[in-house]
Amino acid sequence: MMQNKKLQSINKQQEYNEYVQQKIPKPSYVKNCIWAFIVGGLICVFGQFLGNVFKGMGLSKEDVATAVPMVLVFLGAFFTGLGVYDQLGKRAGAGSIVPITGFANSIVSPAMEFKREGFVFGVAAKMFLLAGPVLVYGFGSSIIVGLLYYFLGR
């Protein structure tokens, strides 16, 4: 009797899982890739445009290489604060995450979400919630590659 109830429960669970799988919308991978390519490309084109403008203003190559990421990070943070970047991310996916503006978004979004918990335990503690692991593994892998290059590249 008990085993029969378990089998019925398992069958109901399987039927429910099949029903859910039928109702889940199927993503259009081609469309998503095209949107990511277009939006990511436009962000990069805008970065190149900024570089050309700064170069035209007489900035040195090193100053342009500093100014362009600063402006892009600022704009990414600013548009995240306005809620525009999140809407862009819903449409573009990885196209909005991969450029440097996505880094700014990953810093500002958790800070805004946890601001009600205060500046220390909310904003400061949660600011690097998304970007922290990326930074840690990025720094760690760059150190390993640098050491390998130093010892094996000579």
Automatic annotation (TrEMBL):
It holds the Pfam family SpoVAC_SpoVAEB. The chain crosses the membrane at residues 33-54, 66-85, 92-108, 128-152. Keywords: Membrane, Transmembrane, Transmembrane helix. The keyword Ion transport does not apply. The keyword Transmembrane applies. This is Stage V sporulation protein AC. It comes from Anaerosolibacter carboniphilus.
